[in-house]
Amino acid sequence: MKTCLVVRHVQFEDLGTLASILAQREFEPRYEEVGVDEFDAPQVEDADLLVVLGGPIGVYEEETYPFLRHELALISKRLAALRPTLGICLGAQLMAKALGAKVAPGPAKEIGWAPVELTASGRASPLRHLEGLHVLHWHGDNLHLPAGCDNLASTPHCPFQAFRKGPNLLGLQFHIEADPRRIEAWLIGHAVELAQARIDPRAIRRDTLRHGEILQRAAAEVFNEWLDQTI
I need a labelling partner for 49 at 20 to 30 A (CA). Which of 4, 95, 128, 224 fits? Predict the structure, then answer.
């Protein structure tokens, strides 16, 4: 079995539909709960695949959440070795910071279903399967493009929605892994943020019914193609 270390910040933001894809490829995922589990450099560096998931904090909040310093240091070592790594939302922002780029609050929160505009590099990457589709956004911070990386996608409020460095490092600000059958866990877990942003959870639930299954099929194509090129 190949090993997949999954760095998780909140319980309901998990591998989602990526879990079954990894199982088919004989990966054995192991979750490490940030702020609870004490994982070390060999675990992060030696895993065949590292997946860093999302969470409702900012990478710049080290004073409030000191574990971010340790987490960032571990991620930095792995990225320096160009070991296969996927970052989603906060995970992508941590990758960007580890690669020397700035991460800061964006001009507006992006929460809900909307398309991304693929760049020429994006259309030549596994993200080509997302062309014209709505994806699930759930972030307020934006990252700058790290040096040596390709920008793959953008939205009006976020010019760098996805980036790639070589075949092995992929960061996604948006969520294509989210299981549409479990969207209620997201709505409950982010209830305060939704209320503060004046976003009606019923709209997200409705849009998930409309776009979720289509995105799930496309996401499988994205992840499988990326893994074919990476592992």
Answer: 128
Active site residue 149: no
- Measured between alpha carbons, how far is 179 from 161 in angstroms, rounded to an integer? 20
Mean pLDDT of 13-24: 98
Taking 90 as the threshold, does the pLDDT of residue 38 lie above it?
no
Integer angstrom CA distances of residue 53 from 86, 107, 121, 134, 214: 8, 23, 24, 20, 22
Look at residue 35 in the predicted model and tell me its pLDDT. Answer: 87
In the block, which residue shows the tokens 């992060």?
Answer: 44
| C-alpha torsion sign, points 116, 55, 1, 168 | positive
State yes or no: is 70 an active-site residue.
Answer: no
Alpha-carbon span 153 to 117, nearest angstrom: 5
Which candidate in 89, 137, 158, 190 is catalytic?
89
Three-class SS of residue 30? strand
pLDDT band, very low/low/confident/very high, at 42 (cuts 50, 70, 90): confident
Cα gap 25→20, rounded to integer Å: 9
* Of the candidates 214, 38, 201, the residue with the CA atom closest to the CA atom of residue 132: 214
- 230 with 167: CB under 8 angstroms? yes
Active site residue 175: yes
- Six-digit token pair at 26? 């004989």
Predicted TM-score (pTM) of the model is 0.97
